[in-house]
Structures are given as C-alpha cells and as structure tokens.
Amino acid sequence: MLGLRNPIRLIPALFLCAIAVGTLLLSLPFATAQETSAPILTAFFTSTSAVSVTGLIVVDTPTYWSVFGQVTILVLFQIGGFGIMTAATMFGLMAGRGFGLRQRMATQVERSRLESGDAVSVLKLVLAITIIVEGVVAIALATRMWLFHGMTPAEAAWDGLFHAVSAFNNAGFSTHSDSVMGYQNDVYILGPIMCAVILTALGFPVMQDIRANGFSWRRWSLHTKITVAGTGALLLFGFVSILVAEWNNPATLGPMAIGSKVLNAAFHSVMPRTAGFNSLDVGGFHDETLMVNYLLMFIGGGSAGTAGGIKVTTFFVIFAIVLSEVRGRRDAGIFNRRFGSALERQSLSVAVMAAALILASTTYIASISELALQDILFETISAFATVGLSTGITADLPPTGQLVIIALMFVGRVGTITVATALALEARDRSYRYPEENVIVG
Length: 442
What we know:
It is a multi-pass membrane protein. By secondary structure, the chain is an all-alpha fold.
C-alpha cells in the first residue's frame, strides 16, 4: 500500500523484484548451455546487468547461457528499459495521487517533464515506439545477417531480434562473444544499432515534445533543446576525439580503410553514452581515448529514457552555472532561459553523488585487486552509467568487487536522487532559516 502511495519508493522495489526473479531463473540448470546450475553470484550479476540495461558480463553470453537463459536475459533488459518505469507511473495514477511537488522535483533527473496528467499519452507513445523501432531494426539486422553473413533464417531472426531489443533498451548484450566486432565494416549492421541507441538515449519526454511540436526549434521545451543540442555536441566531440586519437592505433582503427575508420569512430562515439556494444577492442584504446570515454560515460544520455549517466541536461546545467560564474552573471541559463536555484542544486547534487560513488568504488576495488587503476575506473564508471563497455576485467574482479559493480549498476539505473528519496522518511522543510554568512572559496 505504501508503494502505491509513493511511486518513488516503488521504483527501486520493482527493480529489486525483477533482479530477484531473474537471478532465480538464471540459476536453473537448463538456463546454462552445460545444463548445470550457474553460481548464484554469476546469475545475480547477469540479472542485475540485464535489468539495469548495462551489459557488463562475467561469462560469455552466447556460449555460457542456453536458449532459455538468453531469452531470460532478453526479457530482463526489456523489462529494465521499458516495463518498470512505466509500471511505476501507472501505479501512481491508479493510486489516484499522481506525483507530488516534492516527488516531481526529486525525480526530475529521471523523468524530467513527465507529469501525471499526460502519463497515459506518454505510455502509449513509449509502447508504440518500442514496437515500431524494435521491429524495424530487427528486420533490418536479420535480413542483413541472413543474406550477407551466412546465417540461416532462424539464426538471423534470433540474432536480429536480440540485438534490436538490446540496442533499443541500450542494454549492450550481444549473442556474439566479440559483441559486434565482426561487423565493423558493415554499415547496414552498425547503422541501425546506432540509430536505435541514439533515439532512445534522447529520452521519451523529448520524443513526446517532438511528436507534439514537430521539428520546430522555437516550440520545443528547454529540456528538449538542451538534450538534442547537447547530444549532437557530445556525439561530434566523441567522434572527432576517437577518430584522431585512434587513427594510427594498430589495435583499433589503424589497419582499417578510411571509410571503416569513420564508421567505427562514429559508432563508438555513440556507445559510451549508454549502450555498451563495441566494434573496437576497448582494451586496445590509447589512454587519451579512455579519458574521452570516461567523460562520455559519466554524462550519459537524456532523461526518462533508457540511458544512464548523470544525464545530458544535468551536465549542461552545471556547465551553464560555471559559465555564468566566469562571466560574472547573476543567473545561470541557456537558450534565453534561466534555471531556478532548486534545479541548480539538484544538478550539482546528482553530479557530486555520482562522482563520490565512483571514486569510493574505484578505491575499494583497487585495494582488493592487482588490476590497473585506469581499467578499474573505466569499469566503475561504465557500471554506474549503465553503459556496459569494459576493458575486459569484469570476470577477473574478486567476488566482493563484483558485488560493488552490482551495487553501482543498480544505483546508476534507479538514479541517485530516486534512491535518496526512497530511503528518506518524511523529510520536511524547516520553518526557519539560519543567518547568512560567506566563506572564502578557492
């Protein structure tokens, strides 16, 4: 009953229930290809990674899991990307309470402009986009795999569907041991995956706004403007940075023709934002490329979609705050609109909480393992941002290190503010304020 009255507390509970059911199913003997029960930590890690639409794995998906296990994983990341957030919204409406002002503010990072009044319309949009995009991408991939990559129609249909659902939900799971590295020269495989990832990484409020107002920039909300413009800027930044840094790297772009270099640089500029597929060997990246990936993964995609990270809007709100301070301006804003103080505090809180969690997790894992610090940092950011890219150390993490990664994936998907609100009791604003006094900064 408490969950119905407070959808914010319901969201983490639904995630935990889905993870628990997934762990149970993946622990069954017929979930593995060897028909032996998977270790509970392996099942728990995989289930959490799927529900949180991350994509980090400790065992090879196509060889370790049976068809039943792979179907279970597909269902889990479909639930994680679509079902739980929409179910929470529907429960809130069924309770007849909607979302209170405090709850809307607390979860703005995850849902942004979603209000209870238009939730039904948004749910219809989400369902329609899910069916259409996953269907179109699945057909495109399956056709290409069947006609040009030597697969049987059944194999192509399954692989096409699995990758389409994984791409749409930004999950990063693949039925190939090398992810999509085998298709690094095929634009007709990488292209549809990129399009699906970019679309859903924008977030459903953006899709709703575009549906209502078309492609008229002037009629778009500030949220949509920041998300679209910010996404474009980050994609361009990632593309140029990766192309330049990896151009002559023999482990990545070096041996490729110019067209393939451009294609794979573009593909990988999309994936660190949230998706987790890789057409290049991440472990072979130069250090400067890893640094670019740190930033892209930490920022993530748009709010109220399947993307992770602190979100594009959060990053650009903070950027605007810094810019306004540098220019000596009283108000922070962008596109001729200013931000409220509550939004500024929320953005800073989300970023600081995220950085603190990543720093603490990296420090702990480094203290219990002999793995390279840069690889551990990559892993923890990828887990928190629910990206799923890895330098290849996931399976080498000690058990407690894997539990830390599991916690990061869960917190990263549910959202730092959502978790904080769910754990809070009945917080109330004080009816008084302390005297103001300045301190020296810097």
